[in-house]
Amino acid sequence: MHRRIKIRHLQAFTEIVRQNSMKEAAKRLFLTQPAISRTLSELEEILGAVLLTRDRGGIALTPQGEFFLTYAQTSLSALEQGLDGIEQAGREGAMQMRVGALPSVAARLMPEVVSEVARIAPELRLTIADGPHGHLTGMLRAGQLDLVIGRMGEPETMRDLSFTQLYLEEVVVVVRPGHPILDDPDLRRIADWPVIYPAPSAAIRPFVERLLIMHGVTLPPRRIETVSGAFGRVHTRRSDAIWFISAGVVAREVAEGVLVRLPIATELTQGPIGLMRRSDAADSVASQIFVQAVRRTLDVLGLVTPGGAADETAL
Prior knowledge:
The chain is of the alpha/beta class. The chain folds into three domains: about 80 residues, Winged helix-like DNA-binding domain superfamily/Winged helix DNA-binding domain (Arc Repressor Mutant, subunit A); about 120 residues, Periplasmic binding protein-like II (D-Maltodextrin-Binding Protein, domain 2), CATH 3.40.190; about 100 residues, D-Maltodextrin-Binding Protein, domain 2, CATH 3.40.190.10. Helices cover about 45% and strands about 20% of the residues. The strands form three sheets. Strands 4-3-5-12-6-13 form a six-stranded mixed β-sheet, with helices on both faces. A five-stranded mixed β-sheet has the order 9-8-10-7-11. A two-stranded antiparallel sheet has the order 1-2. Helix 8 links the parallel strand 8 and strand 9.
């Protein structure tokens, strides 16, 4: 968001549209007409676009104004919900944890962790966000998340974050049952079919590139770049696509035989999965309970916790 745009700009713009009157909007916001007109002009200057036209018939949105209105209203609504949530949490005294989970963790680990949290601390309220590594670490760094679980990224993406290793996970290559490549599972043949490939921002991309180099394979020309588990599961089952993805994302589908893992050595793609926090973040009771639930879940799933204790690195 442009740093010059303030909440008052969005409030003035949306209220003018709501009231269809500059005068009425000014009354609602306890402003003078010149003040609200000046605020709207500031917003239009910042955006470099005229948002409203005014005539005897009232207020009319320009095409740019119609486009921007939805986002302005959504932004103000989200802010109000956030303030209401803080107020409600204060009244209830509820413990909260805002957790980010990379796709492999969201699919494999988080359902079990949530069940464990509910068992040991039902009063702990969890908010879970998923997405690619860069998106979640950005939210963590901005204070929008308390903790992220996922694969360690490149050094520049881990700035000001600490990393506590939990287990190792590798990338796998999966296809639908009966896929032609299963007759001769050689990575050098993947160019014959569409490939679902990690996007440049994905934490697993460098590991996949390393795997292909080891097998003498160039970047697949017919590739769809995404780490969306929802898309990959459906598209791989319905097509001849070959999918490079973290093992945790498809662990259940492989176990159930819905997807088939190519018998290719992928140990080279192993990377640490761990807890990421801001380096300056204070430990809370809620975070202690959550981490306890994570470690118990790892024991149940039989995932290796290096050394049986935290291996923490500040980056």
